[in-house]
Structure formats: structure tokens, C-alpha cells
Specification:
about 260 residues, alpha/beta, TIM Barrel, two-stranded antiparallel ribbon, 11 helices, binds magnesium ion
């Protein structure tokens, strides 16, 4: 084999490796698949639609209400109701933009039981660690009762809640930390399944992707909606892309 052939074969091999890595990237619908008619962020419709396009997972946000119930919504205060300060009754009286009532976690999981997509549950940061612990306890108990433990992954910006999920969820349940201020090595020491960071964190620290993989951890990235960022992350071999544009990510994946 001459030098030219060796060069050609190596280039081909590298391109093939890149392609295999990219094909392994999985799509997570951020707050469900919501930017289509009839859907809304964190609605039952958004969960169902994410499942219908075969997303690996559907992400959603959870709050503990003032009366220690669990509800699904992103915003701390949504349509004038502050989730942590209001009762479940008040929270669920709020209407989502598609006309659905704001769901309880119980209702959301009952819908999930009919589907296959994985549940990427984000616990929002609460006012006190005690509230977060109560929320984690309630979530883990509900997942067990509804037999959804094996389909669930936990994510949170809170260091306390990250550690509580690791402590209380069944061993092996993936738990990811979102804030982006902790090195892969430290995440591993906490017991995380990997890093789930904003893409700007990986632009700044591209070596963290390999470091996570070398430590046996996964890499999830949020919230990636632009084709150029999606392409870059796929080529870097990230495991999951969390996006508001799941169809776009799927189309780019198909071309790889
Ligand atoms: Mg979220």
C-alpha cells in the first residue's frame, strides 16, 4: 500500500467513525414536541407527539406545589400562578396554550404509560433543599408505583436535587446535572450518568465530551435548534441532543 492509499484509507476510516458516532446520537424533544398545531410546551399532546415521531425521549419540567403535590410546567410563575406557592388545585386550573389544563405529574405519567418514549424528567430548583428532597421522594415513589422506573432519566440544575436523585432512585437510573459548572471527573464522583450541559459549555470545553466518554459517561446537550450546532455536536459524538426542533435533528441524522 503506497502512502497515498494509506492516507485515503485513513481518511475513509475517520469519516466512517464520524458517521457511526453521529448515527448514535439520539433525539430528545425539549418540553415535548410542542411547536406544531394542537400542541403546547409540557402538555400531554407534546408528550404524545414526541412519541409519535419516535424521539428517544421527551423532556418535561416538574414542580412541587405548596400542598406537596407534583405538577408539570416549565415556568416558576405561569399565567400569574407561582407553582411552589400555589396548591395543586390552583396550578391545574391554569390552561396551557393548546387548551389543555396544566397536568399533574400523575396525569402526565398515565399518558406516558400508553407510549414508548423515554421520560426525561427535570426537577426545577426550589426555594429550599427540603422541598427538593420531598419532590425527589414523591417522584421516585410515583415512578415505582406506575412501573415507569426503567423508562425514566432525571435531570436538574440543582446540585442538591442531583445528589438526592442519585441517593433515592433505583441504582443505575440515569441522573444528569444541567448547570455546566462541574467537570466530568467530579460528575463521575457524584455518581452522575453524564453531563447534560448547554451547547456553549461544550464549545468552550470541547474536550469534556471525550472526557465524559473516557469516564464511561454520556453527553446530552441542550437546547440545540440550529443546523450548524447540531452538525458540530453530532460530529463531536454527543449521545443526545435536546431540541425544540426534533424533526430537523432527525433529518440531519438521516443524511449522516
Ligand atoms: Mg426543562
Amino acid at each position: 500500500m503506497n502512502v497515498k492509499n494509506i492516507f485515503f484509507s485513513s481518511t475513509l476510516l475517520l469519516a466512517l467513525c464520524g458517521s457511526i458516532q453521529a448515527q448514535n446520537t439520539q433525539v430528545i424533544a425539549h418540553r415535548g414536541f410542542w411547536n406544531v398545531p394542537g400542541s403546547a410546551q409540557n402538555s400531554l399532546a407534546a408528550l404524545t407527539k414526541a412519541d409519535s415521531i419516535h424521539c428517544y425521549g421527551s423532556e418535561f419540567d416538574v414542580w412541587l406545589t405548596a400542598d406537596n403535590r407534583l405538577v408539570v410546567n416549565h415556568d416558576e410563575t405561569f399565567k400569574g400562578v407561582t407553582m411552589q406557592n400555589a396548591t395543586e388545585k390552583v396550578c391545574t386550573a391554569v390552561q396551557l396554550d393548546n387548551g389543555e389544563p396544566l397536568p399533574t405529574l400523575q396525569q402526565y405519567l398515565e399518558e406516558a404509560q400508553k407510549l414508548k418514549t423515554r421520560l426525561i424528567l427535570e426537577l426545577k430548583g426550589h426555594k429550599t433543599p427540603e422541598q427538593e428532597t420531598r419532590a425527589v421522594e414523591g417522584i421516585v415513589k410515583m415512578m415505582k408505583a406506575m412501573e415507569l422506573e426503567n423508562r425514566t432519566e432525571y435531570i436538574t440544575f440543582s446540585r442538591h436535587a442531583t445528589k438526592e436523585f442519585i441517593r433515592l432512585a433505583p441504582k443505575g437510573t440515569p441522573v444528569y446535572y444541567l448547570t455546566g459548572d462541574v467537570t466530568p471527573k467530579e460528575l463521575k464522583e457524584w455518581g452522575c450518568a453524564g453531563a447534560d450541559y448547554h451547547f456553549s459549555v461544550f464549545k468552550k470545553n470541547p474536550q469534556w465530551i471525550k472526557e465524559c466518554h473516557d469516564l464511561g459517561m454520556k453527553v446530552n446537550v441542550w437546547t440545540v435548534n440550529e443546523a450548524s450546532d447540531i452538525e458540530w455536536l453530532m460530529n463531536e459524538g454527543v449521545d443526545f441532543i435536546t431540541t425544540n426542533e426534533p424533526i430537523l435533528v432527525q433529518e440531519i441524522l438521516k443524511k449522516k
